[in-house]
Specification:
Ribose 5-phosphate Isomerase B, Chain: A, binds D-ribose
Amino acid sequence: MKIAIAADHGGYELKEVIKKYFTDIEWLDLGTDSSDSVDYPDFAHKMAKTLHNNEASLGILICGTGVGISIAANRHKGIRAALIYSSEVARLAKQHNNANVLVFGGRTMNAGDVIGYIKIFLHEDFEDGRHQRRLDKIEQWEEC
Ligand code: RB5
């Protein structure tokens, strides 16, 4: 499985921990490459372009809180970026929302918890049915 991952300086350290932990995943690292200050929208936009080009099937984005980078990512058509803050949210983000980008806060979350959330998300399936109808309604709005 190929997963794209990107972070600003607030998420850089967590990005490196995640990559090191999941050795069975093929990572497409979109940066940033140090703790030097950068702008999180640049990485959200890079992620959207990568997923639109089918260069990866899932994305992980990290900034300090996860909020700014979620806002930026969700401006893009077809991007369903979910800020994951509990095991329950990790499960439902797949089952109900079929999220294609997982978002974490490098300054607000514990690396061990985040690794657990990623494992949960990856083991769940989208439930379809009424949930697909709701996703369709999000997509219809994108055309307005
Ligand atoms: C950067 O200082 C910080 O604002 C950013 O990482 C993020 O938390 C924004 O939402």
